[in-house]
Amino acid sequence: MLFKKLMAAAVMTVGMVGVSQAALVEGTDYVVLPEAIPQLQQDKIEVLEFFGYFCIHCKHLEPTMSAHVKTFPTDTYFRGEHVVWRPEHLGLARIAAAVNATGLKAQANPAIFKAVMDDGVDLSNPDTFKQWAEQQTSFDGKKLLAAYNGFQNQVEAKNMAELSTKYKIQGTPTIIVGGKYQLQSQDMGKLDELVQKVRTERGMPAAQAKPVLKVKATGSRLASQANQ
Q1: Is 190 buried (19+), middle (13-18) or exposed (0-12) by CB count in 10 A?
Q2: Domain coverage including residue 144
Q3: Domain annotation covers residue 224
């Protein structure tokens, strides 16, 4: 009886997924880009967000997107690129490039958004940013600053400027899936459906969840449970 119930639930789930995917409407839920954006990893599905630290909508989306990225299967990854529409945006793009290089997005971005949007700190100014970064305690500001001062940092920021211009990014946040489809909302459910659309079109295998790391040590396991 239990087996039959599980099978029925599985069939129902598949049916619901099919209905959900069918609900995607071109022009309403997504649009096809006039020119595809090359992915960084060709064998996976890229979720690319063009954002700005000066953008209130990006600030509001940040916690939702950061949490949702953790649910991505093994064949999907996230990429963040800062838009550059004005000269001062290049300074913020340098910060975004440093965040990408250090992997500090989850820790640093909330503080960066708060400084720019809430506190009015001009982090586009290199001297102001350096002083601000050295004072941070919620994340490793010195690590971020080291990446900011690295040679590759300015190259990456200029690449962001070129992407913004070449692909005519008009607003933020702009979310691109598979280098081909632009999501027309901030609906994470629709985002997942677009990812599945790309997966199906490419003939990729079914999505596999990321493996859950098992904590072997008793003390570490208890600490992990306490932080949940």
Answers
A1: buried
A2: 27-210
A3: no
